[in-house]
């Protein structure tokens, strides 16, 4: 547990978080490893976890009939993966597949949500951080919508 | 070593700047479905020496003339290289040329990437789509003088893996141990791509450079450059550390037709490469 | 001889034309055509707009008969001397197909040699401004340079100002100070005497003058001439406050006034056509039907057209507002950064020939005053 706490407090995502909250969160976390090609979750799965990628690469994919799987985003070292755990109906919208051997910290979302109900301040601190992630993903997605490399003739 | 790369604008031979010199197509390489790279050789005395970032006016007999960046190796100017994307009648016709066909060329024109001035700094090149074409000569130059620079990173974004330019070269550069090459695409099929997916700006936080001692060279669609500059500023770069390449309508390339004006600047002679702080006042302003 | 002032009588004026034509100059000057005073080839005094004057205001131009027979009793019309120095239509070169390649045949015809008769002070400044554009930079326009070097300039000092004139505001007149071979001030006295006080500007001017009967000007003649030119300064039809004009416009690129003027501006390009300093062009590559011969042609163009700012995908300045803003900020602000002077000489043509009577001096005033009211 002590090592996990140190890992969390060093990570930029949790920077500035009260050590007591780090301890609380660490209680919901464990280290995991995904093999290359392994699915971490599938579209429709309950959003019961989120991850902090330590190193490796994960691809978010959508499967379209007739088109096959399409990669819409890749996440790698230090990225946070998964925000649907915080937003009802708590369901995953994409598939996630490890492209290479990936080590991550996995957080039990039910556990975290429980702790946030008990300690609303913790909930606010996590909200501040996750809203940034959602915002960044939204902006990046909007930029891709613009099809900036297209010819638009 | 004295590096004397300055924009070449005074012709050694007295040529009317509105008259093209014939060049012959030696080789055509297909880069993507709508982009081709042509290697040309001069058929008459012409200025071939150029500085990275400069462009020529390329003329196709009876069809028209368009500005195209030079994409070759500045240390081997006898082979003129142009990467052309078919977006209009002239470029579409140029993309249909074969070995032996003749084109007219005037130039080189414009300002250049500050590869000489940047000696001693880290270099980060951020580009997307066809934007890599005007930057390739700068990359060649930096790699040829690798010892003069600190860390060198190339961040490149494209729509799909099939839309990337210079694929083999990118892979070769990636294989060099003294160069960080990160590539990303907007979308891909997993069986054809094992790299990153996402916009090129997402590569910036992970690029290896010292924000206090870096020169950033940015080229691509204006929207991409806008967001790239924001990310670079987030990493602590000042506006005078960032260089961009701008594009506007051009007919003469010598500052007389007036069409390429961008605020008070003529892109054909004050640009196309600009240090960002010099155009900051108009950059991103609508319809300027 | 330079700086010397002489008097030439009206009845000898034709000899000035003759002297110039004898030296091979094509004499060009004002003449009446279709209700306006335009610039064209003229061989004799009789072709000048004798006894005519012009009444000008926003979107208004009328000719009116004077009650005297003055040769230069008007100001400026829709033409400017750029018509001759920077021709509206020019073939740059022709080319022939040659196997897979082509061969270019440059135009080697002799450049014309013009003598401009009746150049106003504002126009001298406009020519000097275009000199900077075409001959002072990295590249020199050989067409402009050749015509300009060969041109002989007979300037005329304005003794009356026009309804849309504001050369006083732009410090470009009404008196011709330099840039001429000869400068005339026309004087008609009550008793009927009609003469010109002529100032010699160059050796060329002095040489031509030798063929025209003249005598040394008396101090009273010179005083007469100066007094009449001084009158013109009192009659300026418009005024433009140039204080801090560059920053004023640069800091107001998003001012609502641009939207307001855009509701009136038709983007008809008249202002750019009549403006003596506007120089923008397009270059067209054309071919004959067989595809064997091609030609590169240069033509006047205007920043008010959609094509002007076209890049693949569309025009950068798609809205009329953006195009008006480009023209005005270029003319009054960016021009200073580019060439070291204002692009405007206060001739008032853009005001007179705008079908919507848009007034550049009024637009500046509106923006300036809106800042004052905010302060």
Fold and architecture overview:
The complex is a heterotrimer of chains A (about 150), B (about 290) and C (about 375). Chain A is α+β, with helices and mostly antiparallel strands and about 150 residues long. Chain A has helices at about 1-10, 20-25, 110-120, 120-145, and strands at about 30-35, 40, 50-55, 55-65, 70-75, 80, 95-100, 100-110. A 4-stranded antiparallel beta sheet of chain A has the order 1-8-3-6. The termini of chain A are far apart. The mean pLDDT of chain A is about 90. Chain B is an alpha/beta fold. Chain B has 5 helices and 15 strands. Chain B has helices at about 90-95, 130-145, 165-175, 220-235, 275-280, and strands spanning about 20-30, 35-40, 55-60, 65-70, 80-85, 100-110, 120-130, 150-160, 180-185, 195, 215-220, 240-245, 260, 265, 275. The relative contact order of chain B is 0.14. Chain C is an alpha+beta fold and about 375 residues long. Helices cover about 35% and strands about 25% of the residues of chain C. Chain C has helices at about 15-20, 80-85, 120-135, 140-150, 165-170, 205-210, 220-235, 245-250, 255-260, 270-275, 320-340, 350, 360-375; strands at about 5-10, 25-35, 35-40, 50-55, 60-65, 90-100, 100-105, 115-120, 150-155, 180-190, 195-200, 215, 280-285, 295-300, 310, 315. An 8-stranded mixed beta sheet of chain C has the order 3-2-8-9-10-11-1-12. In chain C, strands 7-6-14-13 form a 4-stranded antiparallel beta sheet, with no helix packed on it. A two-stranded antiparallel ribbon of chain C has the order 4-5. The termini of chain C are far apart. The mean pLDDT of chain C is about 95. Chains B and C meet through loops of B and strand 6, strand 7, strand 13, strand 14 and strand 15 of C.
């Amino acid at each position: 547990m002590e090592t996990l706490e140190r890992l969390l407090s060093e990570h930029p995502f949790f920077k500035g978080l009260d050590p007591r909250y780090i301890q609380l969160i660490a209680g919901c976390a464990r280290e995991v490893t995904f093999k290359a090609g392994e699915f971490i979750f599938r579209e429709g799965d309950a959003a019961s976890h989120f991850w902090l990628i330590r190193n490796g690469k994960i691809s978010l994919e959508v499967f379209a009939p007739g088109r096959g799987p399409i990669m819409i985003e890749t996440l790698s070292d230090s990225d946070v993966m998964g925000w649907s755990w915080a937003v009802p109906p708590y369901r995953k919208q994409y598939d996630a597949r490890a492209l290479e051997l990936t080590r991550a910290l996995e957080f039990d979302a039910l556990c975290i949500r429980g702790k946030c109900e008990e300690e609303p301040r913790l909930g606010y601190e996590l909200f501040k951080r996750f809203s940034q992630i959602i915002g960044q993903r939204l902006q990046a997605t909007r930029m891709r919508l613009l099809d900036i490399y297209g010819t638009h003739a | 070593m004295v590096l004397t790369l300055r924009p070449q604008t005074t012709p050694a031979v007295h040529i009317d700047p509105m008259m093209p010199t014939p060049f012959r197509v030696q080789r055509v390489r297909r880069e993507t479905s709508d982009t081709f790279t042509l290697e040309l050789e001069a058929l008459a005395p012409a200025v071939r020496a150029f500085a990275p970032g400069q462009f020529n006016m390329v003329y196709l007999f009876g069809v028209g003339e368009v500005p195209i960046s030079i994409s070759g190796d500045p240390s081997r100017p006898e082979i003129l290289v142009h990467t052309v994307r078919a977006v209009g009648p002239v470029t579409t016709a140029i993309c249909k040329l074969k070995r032996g066909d003749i084109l007219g060329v005037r130039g080189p024109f414009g300002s250049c990437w500050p590869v000489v001035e940047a000696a001693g700094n880290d270099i980060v090149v951020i580009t997307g789509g066809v934007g890599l074409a005007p930057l390739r000569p700068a990359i060649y130059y930096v790699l040829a003088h690798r010892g003069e620079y600190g860390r060198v990173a190339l961040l490149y974004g494209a729509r799909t893996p099939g839309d990337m330019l210079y694929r083999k070269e990118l892979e070769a550069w990636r294989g060099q141990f003294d160069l960080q090459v990160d590539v990303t695409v907007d979308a891909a099929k997993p069986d054809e791509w094992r790299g990153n997916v996402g916009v090129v700006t997402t590569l910036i936080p992970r690029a290896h450079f010292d924000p206090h001692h870096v020169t950033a060279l940015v080229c691509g669609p204006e929207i991409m450059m806008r967001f790239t500059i924001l990310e670079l500023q987030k990493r602590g770069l000042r506006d005078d550390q960032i260089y961009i390449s701008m594009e506007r309508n051009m007919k003469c390339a010598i500052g007389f037709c007036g069409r390429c004006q961008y605020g008070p600047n003529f892109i054909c002679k004050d640009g196309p490469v600009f240090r960002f702080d010099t155009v900051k006042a108009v950059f991103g302003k609508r319809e300027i | 001889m330079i700086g010397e002032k002489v008097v030439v009588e009206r009845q000898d004026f034709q000899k000035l034309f003759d002297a110039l034509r004898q030296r091979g100059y094509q004499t060009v000057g004002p003449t009446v055509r279709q209700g306006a005073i335009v610039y064209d080839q003229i061989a004799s005094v009789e072709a000048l707009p004798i006894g005519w004057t012009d009444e000008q205001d926003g979107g208004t131009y009328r000719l009116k008969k004077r009650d005297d027979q003055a040769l230069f009793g008007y100001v400026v019309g829709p033409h400017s001397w750029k018509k001759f120095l920077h021709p509206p239509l020019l073939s740059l070169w022709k080319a022939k197909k040659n196997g897979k390649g082509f061969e270019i045949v440059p135009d080697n015809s002799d450049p014309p040699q013009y003598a401009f008769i009746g150049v106003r002070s504002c126009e001298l400044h406009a020519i000097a401004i275009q000199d900077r554009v075409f001959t002072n930079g990295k590249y020199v326009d050989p067409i402009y340079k050749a015509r300009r070097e060969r041109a002989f300039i007979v300037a005329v000092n304005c003794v009356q100002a026009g309804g849309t004139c504001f050369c006083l505001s732009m410090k470009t007149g009404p008196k011709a100070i330099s840039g001429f071979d000869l400068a005339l001030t026309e004087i008609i006295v009550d008793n009927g005497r009609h003469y010109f006080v002529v100032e010699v500007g160059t050796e060329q001017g002095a040489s031509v003058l030798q063929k025209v009967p003249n005598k040394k000007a008396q101090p009273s003649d010179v005083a007469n001439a100066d007094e009449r030119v001084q009158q013109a300064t009192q009659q300026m039809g418009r005024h433009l406050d140039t204080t801090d004009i560059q920053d004023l416009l640069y800091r107001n690129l998003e001012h609502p006034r641009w939207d307001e003027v855009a509701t009136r501006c038709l983007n008809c390009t008249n202002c750019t056509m009549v403006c003596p300093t506007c120089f923008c062009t397009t270059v067209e590559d054309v071919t004959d039907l067989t595809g064997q011969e091609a030609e590169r042609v240069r033509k006047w163009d205007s920043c008010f057209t959609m094509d002007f700012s076209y890049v693949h995908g569309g025009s950068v300045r798609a809205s009329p507002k953006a195009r008006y803003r480009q023209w005005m900020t270029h003319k009054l602000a960016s021009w200073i950064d580019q060439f070291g002077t204002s692009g405007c000489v206060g001739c008032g043509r853009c005001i007179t020939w705008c079908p919507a009577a848009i007034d550049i001096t009024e637009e500046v005033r509106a923006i300036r005053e809106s800042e004052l009211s905010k302060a």
